[in-house]
Design brief:
By secondary structure, the protein is α/β, with parallel strands linked by helices. The protein contains 17 helices and 21 strands.
């Protein structure tokens, strides 16, 4: 956008003393032979002067967005990127070329916050503008190392453009309020905002924010608050829009998907059955983390849903500890038997299901006997996906005030749990199987494409561009701890689940065709291109803001500015004739 936006600094930039007078132009017309000539748009853009990105004119800067943490946080990051790009800012993956860093933080563990703090320090050393987002500043807005910096709250991400605008101008802005309707807290910002999907094939939908628990170790509760769910219809409409944009996989996320709807008189199975109705054949839905208490009453329905061909037979149910004593100190509101009931029922009713869980090693007060109970639980179920976390006390949480387990003991228990986890291979018996897999991304080493089978198990397949975004059939020939490798099956058919062409990487979702045309500078006009680009940009920004940003006062100023601009352009064109 910045490369094609030429903003005159003064009226003399349009008409100067060296230009022909209107009389000279008129008398010279008889010597002019009209001739049509196409001018290269790219050459024209190269020759036009653009405002420097280090100026204080909002909307022309380059922004780097870094997100830590869960898929909910990643979804927030995608929405912020989409709004900024739609407004005219350029989003980059290269932090060194950015004018402003938007740092979207995670407060679950100390290492994630350490990375966040170090990034702030680095940005300041490199004289970058900084905007902070995510759970750390929301939960601890007065912490020393973020003083004087702009903050966008977790329920204010629809105002990210405002915060960035003011930060570019040198101001510090903090928006930390909650979204409410008639005093009732809402699930968050509108789901139809522009966004840039990190992966154009995958849509992350936050179905609710916050939770009903008060776990003694959790800092996220301080940031996300109590449960607030989106209405079923809004979520279904968001899913429909995603499929219209070429998405073939949907992730449902929140701090606790199992608690969904309890605040608005509905429940998770009701939402899932509605979503299943709109999922195209071959596309898949993945359900996010749910705590044991809130899925116990829905086990029968959840088993039916997880057996559905368009839903991954996968569920993340964090147990955290195999000791009832530790669970009580954590205030987890369930016992080990509750978790076993969930796990055993689903393994029986959903054959082959992948159950993922979390373990915290070294929680305050955890004894050797408590830890051995957790080891026995892992040994019994041999979870194919296990997230092992050494306990870190988070500031302001009750667990931080408890008697801590010595650091060397926590490290040793974490090591023992990791050794147990790596002692078994959950996929070794699958060599020789033929599986249908959905290909959605590239591996970290760029040597394979990554696909997932019905049980959301990772399958690496050859990098054939025709496979991306497709459902294919493979024969498993090799397995590892976290993956399988598959050859394309002979005579297989490649199925395309997307009902529309996926958006290009970096393309903004949720922008209408009209606004897309404006973003691309439109076609043909007698208005000089530099002036036209400026008009387009202002017009686009005005349209983008109206639905959710402009108050009456700002609308008046925008209208006045546009009126003055049109008058100047009209006057200039009359002189040029």
């Amino acid at each position: 956008m910045s490369g094609s936006c030429n903003i005159p600094e003064d009226i003399e930039d349009i008409v100067s003393a060296h230009d022909f007078t209107p009389y000279d132009r008129q008398t010279a017309k008889k010597d002019v032979v009209p001739k049509a000539r196409r001018r290269s748009r790219f050459k024209q853009e190269e020759n036009e002067e653009a405002p420097s990105s280090d100026s204080n004119i909002p909307g022309i800067q380059t922004i780097w967005i870094k997100t830590w943490g869960c898929s909910h946080n990643n979804s927030d990051g995608e929405y912020m990127a989409g709004q900024l790009a739609a407004y005219g800012y350029r989003i980059t993956e290269n932090p060194s070329e950015a004018d402003l860093w938007l740092l979207n933080s995670c407060t679950v563990k100390s290492p994630a916050e350490d990375h966040f703090r170090n990034s702030i320090k680095k940005a300041q050393q490199e004289n970058k503008k900084v905007v902070l987002a995510g759970c750390v500043p929301q939960a601890q807005p007065r912490i020393d190392y973020i003083k004087g910096l702009s903050i966008i709250g977790v329920q204010q991400i629809d105002r990210v453009v405002e915060v960035v605008e003011e930060t570019v101008k040198g101001h510090a802005v903090r928006l930390l309020g909650q979204k409410k309707d008639n005093g009732k807290r809402l699930g968050g910002v509108r789901l139809d905002l522009p966004k840039i999907r990190k992966n154009p094939l995958i849509e992350i939908i936050s179905i609710n924010t916050g939770c009903l628990n008060a776990c003694t170790y959790c800092k996220t509760k301080h940031a996300r608050g109590d449960l607030a769910s989106y209405p079923v219809d809004e979520l279904v409409n968001r899913a429909k829009q995603s499929f219209q944009e070429g998405v073939c996989e949907i992730w449902l996320t929140s701090e606790d998907t199992g608690a969904y709807g309890r605040d608005i008189g509905t429940d998770l199975p009701t939402l899932l059955w509605r979503l299943v109705e709109v999922i195209p054949e071959g596309a898949m839905l993945r359900l996010g983390m749910t705590n044991p208490p809130y899925i116990l009453e829905h086990l029968e329905e959840m088993a039916k849903i997880l057996n559905h061909p368009r839903v991954y037979s996968f569920l993340h149910v964090p147990v955290q500890s195999g000791s009832d004593s530790v669970l009580m100190d954590m205030k987890r509101e369930y016992c080990v038997e509750d978790f076993k009931r969930v796990a055993s029922f689903l393994k029986e009713k959903v054959p082959g299901i992948t159950l993922a869980t979390d373990i915290i090693c070294g929680f305050p007060g955890e004894t050797d006997e408590d830890f051995q109970e957790t080891m026995k639980l892992v040994q019994e179920y041999k979870f194919p996906s296990l997230f092992i976390n050494q306990f870190y006390p988070r500031p302001g949480t009750p667990a931080a005030k408890m008697q801590q387990v010595p650091a060397h003991v926590k490290k040793q228990r974490t090591k023992e749990m990791s050794q147990l986890f790596h002692s078994y291979n959950p996929y070794e018996y699958k060599v020789g199987e033929r599986q249908h897999v959905l290909v959605t991304e590239e591996s970290f080493n760029s040597q394979y494409y990554v696909a997932h089978n019905k049980f959301y198990e990772q399958v690496l397949v050859p990098k054939n561009p025709t496979f991306m975004g497709k459902m294919i059939e493979v024969d498993i020939y090799e397995t590892g701890k976290h993956f399988m490798k598959g050859h394309p099956a002979s005579g297989m058919e490649i199925y395309t689940p997307s009902i529309a062409k996926p958006l290009a990487k970096g393309e903004v979702s949720g922008v209408t065709e009209e606004l897309k045309a404006i973003l691309q500078n439109g076609t043909g006009s007698h208005v000089p291109s530099a002036t036209k680009n400026m008009m387009d940009l202002l017009d686009f920004r005005a349209r983008l803001q109206l639905p959710w940003r402009l108050n009456d006062e700002r609308l008046k100023w925008m209208s006045l500015s546009l009126a003055i601009l049109v008058a100047v352009i009209t006057f200039s064109l009359e002189i040029f004739r």
